[in-house]
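Write out this protein's structure.
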Amino acid sequence: MRRLIPVLVTAVLGLATAPPATADTRHAPSGTTVDCAKVKCIALTFDDGPGRYTAQLLDLLRRHHTKVTFFLVGQRVAKSGKIARRMAREGHQIGDHTFTHPHLTSLTDDQIRDELSRTQDAIHRATGRRPDIMRPPYGDTDDRVGAIATELGLSQILWNGSARDWELRDTKAITRKVLGLAKRDRVILMHDIWPETVAAMPKILTTLEKQGYHVVPVKSLLRGRQLLPGDTYPVGGWN
């Protein structure tokens, strides 16, 4: 009987300390491993950071095992490289959102090139990775902007649903707006620089999960297809 006691104690301790079998699979929307051809996906994208509320958003995303796409402003990355590094380390997709957030179509070719390339450099210095996607501020793009993006190895990522959080500035209204826009394969535009947006995210993520959505980076919506420099995604109307 004495010989059985250590075995029983070990077994009990093992049950007490072992993680639940479902702990890592309860929130399947990890983004990079989800097959969006088989499950319902939606991409949440965040512009204009890093900002003072971005770390709080990253904490929430980590708790939900969720990956998103961030479009970063170069001059902010230069000041907050640590946050950009954390985004990359935690598996989020990172894109170029210009250095000073101008209307690109109002600039000369050299100015457009400078805005995009300086941001690529800033992100590379912070994360060790050079972005291959960009989002033009205000969605302000044309053939000339597209040609320069192509030259710099960048695809353009737009959106087909906007939270309009910059206008609403109300947590409940932002939550209703985003959930009302939710459809399979949509790319939703948001901003992590607004505290109301970050405050809305717990309800948004929980509700989307209950509705069967997997929140993923934009690249996961492509189902393995690679965007080429100069490509624009998604194609279609904006809301």
